[in-house]
C-alpha cells in the first residue's frame, strides 16, 4: 500500500510531465475518477500545462496552467493511490497494461495512472480553493512536522501509539509499514498509550521518523533491506534485525503489526 515514501516516488515520476502540455487524456476506466466524469476530466485538462507536483501525506497534487510559463493553479489533479495505485512514465507506443486506468499524453511520453483494485483514484479540483477543501481533513505532513507539534498532536487523546501515528487527521503520510518500522526503531510497543509517553519518548519518535523518512524517500519506498524491520516482514523465520528475538505478529486497529517483544516491551 503506497505510503509517504512511495507517493514521493510517484511525485518524481509526475515531475517528468512538469512544464509539458497535455495533448489528450485517455480514460480507460472511469471508476478511478472520483467526483468527476470522463468527459469533464478530459476537457478540463486537455491543452493545459502540468505544473510542479507536490505532496501532502499520501496525496499528490498536480496543478495546471493555461500557458507554458503561467503560474500553475486550477484545475488541479489530485491523486490518492489507495491500496494498489501508482504513476508510471512510459514512452509512446508502449503496450498499455489492463490496469493502466488513465493515460495523460505529452509530447515526450505518457504519464499513466495504474491501479489494480481501484479503491481510490483521481480527483479534479476545478478552482483554487478546492484543493484545500479536498485536503482539509489531513493533519500536517509527516516529513515536515516539527517536534513540538508532533508531540502535541499525538497526545491530544489517549489511545495506542500505532493507531495515532496512522490517523491521517493527526499526521499525514504514515501507513502500516512506516508505523511498524518507526515504532521498532524507537523501541516503543505499538499499543503503548500516547499519554504515557514522556517528552523524551516523543522527541525520540520524531527524530527516528525524520531519519526513517529521509532514507525511505530516497529509496522511493520503505526499504526491505536486512537491517530494516520491513526486510523481515515476509521472512519464513521472522527475527529482530537488532537482537535476533523471534518477532511477534499481532493485530492493532485491524492491521497486521510486526514488532519485537524484547526491544519493544510494554
Ligand atoms: Zn529486538
Automatic annotation (TrEMBL):
<dbReference type="InterPro" id="IPR010979">
    <property type="entry name" value="Ribosomal_uS13-like_H2TH"/>
</dbReference>
<dbReference type="GO" id="GO:0140078">
    <property type="term" value="F:class I DNA-(apurinic or apyrimidinic site) endonuclease activity"/>
</dbReference>
<comment type="similarity">
    <text>Belongs to the FPG family.</text>
</comment>
<dbReference type="GO" id="GO:0003684">
    <property type="term" value="F:damaged DNA binding"/>
</dbReference>
<keyword id="KW-0326">Glycosidase</keyword>
<dbReference type="InterPro" id="IPR015886">
    <property type="entry name" value="H2TH_FPG"/>
</dbReference>
<protein>
    <submittedName>
        <fullName>Fpg/Nei family DNA glycosylase</fullName>
    </submittedName>
</protein>
<dbReference type="InterPro" id="IPR010663">
    <property type="entry name" value="Znf_FPG/IleRS"/>
</dbReference>
<keyword id="KW-0238">DNA-binding</keyword>
<dbReference type="InterPro" id="IPR000214">
    <property type="entry name" value="Znf_DNA_glyclase/AP_lyase"/>
</dbReference>
<keyword id="KW-0378">Hydrolase</keyword>
<dbReference type="InterPro" id="IPR012319">
    <property type="entry name" value="FPG_cat"/>
</dbReference>
<keyword id="KW-0863">Zinc-finger</keyword>
<dbReference type="Pfam" id="PF01149">
    <property type="entry name" value="Fapy_DNA_glyco"/>
</dbReference>
<keyword id="KW-0227">DNA damage</keyword>
<dbReference type="GO" id="GO:0008270">
    <property type="term" value="F:zinc ion binding"/>
</dbReference>
<keyword id="KW-0234">DNA repair</keyword>
<feature type="domain" description="FPG-type">
    <location>
        <begin position="228"/>
        <end position="265"/>
    </location>
</feature>
<keyword id="KW-0456">Lyase</keyword>
<dbReference type="Pfam" id="PF06827">
    <property type="entry name" value="zf-FPG_IleRS"/>
</dbReference>
<dbReference type="InterPro" id="IPR035937">
    <property type="entry name" value="FPG_N"/>
</dbReference>
<dbReference type="GO" id="GO:0006284">
    <property type="term" value="P:base-excision repair"/>
</dbReference>
<dbReference type="InterPro" id="IPR015887">
    <property type="entry name" value="DNA_glyclase_Znf_dom_DNA_BS"/>
</dbReference>
<dbReference type="GO" id="GO:0034039">
    <property type="term" value="F:8-oxo-7,8-dihydroguanine DNA N-glycosylase activity"/>
</dbReference>
<keyword id="KW-0862">Zinc</keyword>
<dbReference type="Pfam" id="PF06831">
    <property type="entry name" value="H2TH"/>
</dbReference>
<keyword id="KW-0511">Multifunctional enzyme</keyword>
<feature type="domain" description="Formamidopyrimidine-DNA glycosylase catalytic">
    <location>
        <begin position="2"/>
        <end position="120"/>
    </location>
</feature>
<keyword id="KW-0479">Metal-binding</keyword>
Amino acid at each position: 500500500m503506497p505510503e509517504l515514501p512511495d507517493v514521493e516516488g510517484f511525485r518524481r515520476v509526475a515531475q517528468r510531465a512538469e512544464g509539458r502540455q497535455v495533448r489528450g487524456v485517455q480514460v480507460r476506466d472511469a471508476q478511478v475518477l472520483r467526483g468527476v466524469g470522463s468527459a469533464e476530466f478530459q476537457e478540463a485538462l486537455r491543452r493545459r500545462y502540468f505544473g510542479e507536483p507536490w505532496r501532502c501525506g499520501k496525496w499528490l497534487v498536480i496543478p495546471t496552467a493555461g500557458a507554458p510559463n503561467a503560474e500553475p493553479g486550477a484545475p488541479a489533479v489530485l491523486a490518492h493511490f489507495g491500496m494498489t495505485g501508482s504513476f508510471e512514465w512510459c514512452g509512446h507506443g508502449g503496450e498499455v497494461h489492463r490496469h493502466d486506468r488513465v493515460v495523460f499524453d505529452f509530447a515526450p511520453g505518457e504519464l499513466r495512472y495504474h491501479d489494480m483494485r481501484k479503491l481510490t483514484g483521481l480527483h479534479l479540483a476545478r478552482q483554487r480553493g478546492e484543493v484545500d477543501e479536498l485536503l482539509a481533513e489531513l493533519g500536517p505532513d509527516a516529513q515536515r512536522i516539527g517536534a513540538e507539534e508532533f508531540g502535541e498532536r499525538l497526545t491530544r487523546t489517549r489511545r495506542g501509539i500505532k493507531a495515532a501515528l496512522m490517523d491521517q487527521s493527526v499526521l499525514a503520510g504514515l501507513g502500516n509499514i512506516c508505523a511498524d518500522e518507526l515504532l521498532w526503531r524507537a523501541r516503543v510497543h505499538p499499543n503503548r498509550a500516547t499519554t504515557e509517553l514522556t517528552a523524551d519518548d516523543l522527541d525520540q519518535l520524531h527524530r527516528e521518523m525524520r531519519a526513517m523518512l529521509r532514507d525511505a524517500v530516497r529509496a522511493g519506498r520503505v526499504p526491505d533491506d536486512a537491517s530494516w524491520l520491513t526486510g523481515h516482514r515476509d521472512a519464513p523465520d521472522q527475527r529482530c534485525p537488532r537482537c535476533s528475538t523471534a518477532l511477534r505478529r499481532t493485530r492493532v486497529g485491524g492491521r497486521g503489526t510486526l514488532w519485537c517483544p524484547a526491544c519493544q516491551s510494554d
